[in-house]
Design goal:
With 182 residues, the protein is of the alpha+beta class. The N and C termini lie far apart (38 Å). 54% of the residues lie in helices and 19% in strands. Strand 3 (158-167) and strand 4 (170-179) form a beta hairpin. The protein has 7 helices and 4 strands; from the N terminus they run H-H-H-H-H-H-E-E-H-E-E. Helix 1 (3-17) packs across helix 4 and helix 5 (83-89) packs antiparallel against helix 6. The protein folds into 2 domains: 3-61; 68-179, Alpha-Beta Complex (H-NOX domain), CATH 3.90.1520. It has a 4-stranded antiparallel beta sheet with strand order 1-2-4-3, with helices on one face.
Length: 182
């Protein structure tokens, strides 16, 4: 997993719960890195999972709530550092439609070892979009936070629902994103 996710996660924890909590969760985990990450490095997903589980243990917060909040923070980082992708899309639905076929292609050019989720449009009309999220990592709450924050970036209020589904390719989460009336 790319280091930017780790550095942003630890910054999220510090912003939400203070630097002592960052030290606590790092000390609580047996991390091969010792908790030292760079934004451009690549690290085992297991370390992020362990940090999250330690944060759950020490904060009492639900994993999905933490991941959604982290998704909002990560989106702010992405909109600042990669504004060209957001600006090129111009709208929430267009942006979400560009993730697999454009953004993830560009990420793989820079980082061929990147293990990215799949996010495919299953259905779309003017007011509703169904997005199928496939990942072995179970970070759908993070994806939901990213979707919510991206809708705020475009100033397009939406309601987001999710449902676990399966097909011949395996299990996935379908996000149904509906525009709210202005």
């Amino acid at each position: 997993m790319k280091g930017i996710v780790f550095t942003e996660f630890l910054e999220f924890v510090e912003d939400q719960m203070g630097p002592d909590m960052v030290d606590t969760i790092i000390d609580d985990c047996e991390l091969s890195t010792g908790g030292a990450y760079t934004a451009v490095g690549t690290y085992p997903f297991s370390e992020l999972r362990d940090l999250l589980l330690s944060l759950v243990k020490h904060s009492g917060a639900e994993p999905a709530v933490l991941l959604r909040g982290f998704g909002h923070k990560l989106c702010a980082t992405f909109t600042t550092g990669y504004a060209r992708y957001f600006d090129a899309a111009g709208s929430l639905f267009d942006f979400l439609g560009s993730i697999d076929d454009h953004i993830h292609v560009e990420v793989r050019k820079l980082y061929p070892d990147a293990e990215l989720p799949s996010m495919r449009i299953a259905e779309r009309n003017a007011d509703r979009l169904a997005l199928d999220y496939r990942s072995e990592r179970g970070l759908e709450a993070l994806a939901e936070g990213l979707i919510e924050a991206t809708s705020a970036y475009y100033r397009e209020p939406v309601a987001v629902r999710s449902a676990r589904m399966s097909d011949a390719q395996g299990e996935f989460v379908r996000f149904t994103i509906e525009r709210k009336a202005a």
